[in-house]
Amino acid sequence: MGGSSHLSDALARGYAARGHEVLVITAAYDDAPAEEWRNGVRVVRLPAVMLPETKLAVSFDLSFATRPGLRRRLARLLDDFGPDAIHQHGQFMDLTWATGAYARRRGIPALLSVHTRLENPSARYHHVFRGLDATLVAPRLRRYRPNIVVMDSYMQEYIHRRYRGGWSELTPIPVGVDPSWIRSGSAERGRELIGVGPGVPIILSVGHVIPLRDRLGLVEALPSILERHPDAVLAVAGRVYYDVFLQRAEELGVAHAVRALGAVPKSDVPHLFAAATVESHEQGHGLGTATLESMAAGVPVVAWGRIDNFPGIPMIDGTHIFMCDTGDVAGLAGRLIRALDDPAATRLVGQNARAIVDEHFTLERVLDRHLEVLASMASDRTPVPTR
Prior knowledge:
Layout: H1 3-17, E1 23-27, E2 35-38, E3 41-46, E4 49-50, E5 63-64, H2 70-81, E6 86-89, H3 94-106, E7 110-113, H4 123-144, E8 147-150, H5 153-162, E9 169-172, H6 179-182, H7 187-194, E10 202-206, H8 216-228, E11 233-237, H9 244-252, E12 258-262, H10 269-275, E13 278-279, H11 289-296, E14 302-304, E15 322-324, H12 329-341, H13 343-360, H14 363-379
Parallel strand pairs: 1-3, 6-7, 7-8, 8-9, 10-11, 10-13, 11-12, 14-15
Antiparallel strand pairs: 2-3, 4-5
Helix pairs in contact: 1-14, 3-4, 7-10, 8-9, 8-12, 11-13
């Protein structure tokens, strides 16, 4: 229930709104119905088993639908639907592998969006994940060779490193966001949700807390920030799967300045952005959906990573974003202090960021690009008759 699922949902609704027939096949989740129509989209949820929360599972909700009869069920669903193309989300999900096999048998082109790198900061799990990529994911991709969507520079390098030979083409399409939704918030309501009054500087951090986005850098930057801005608050909005940052806050004596809000309804996210002074979630490598949503809302982003994160879309440190090297806690603290010290200059950075989103990252622009690629793939298709 994170950024990738929200983007998947938005694209499916966008395809339907443009007049295309859309069938979504996904795994069962909580008490969601097995089948329904939503926003012109037919959604079928197949029975699935949820993996227990572990560090090996990247502390995330992972479910698998593989069971006897899955291949036949998928074939019936897809043969009845008659897709011109299949858009897959997530390279290490068993429904991706199953629909990839179906696509190869039927001669149907597949577009695969790789949302997440199979990585973990722990050396122990890092080797395990490399092994899973090499033995489970890469061989399956090489069998049907999808067109892979590349969302940023880090992802491009990761795909080249882990899945060589596992694609027919690499297509750069950034993550898309809906500016009208993200700009609809109330700052007053946002402050109520965080539990602070007017005038309190808010460092907002959006996204589930997992090992790759553990918020340790932010917590370790807090002592320096609080020396300069003693009333500042770090508000973390997202389910906490990995709570080491809370333990570290206690050790550093800054726990009073940390608000762990937990999982936040999507309808409340614009209110949090409206209240925020800056946003930062030092997510390891790359700038994801939460970063772009913050930029769309005009909230200045303080991050670590690389300034060329989005190929072909130039950004300047201090003009469109505050950026420092990955792992540079002192640099992160310095840029957060700089942003809090000069509210007028910081607001200008937010305005510049908002303009970049409007030019390159709106959902409509991203939807246009996906449809161009899917249409081209479908026109080149050589169908294989069903038997």
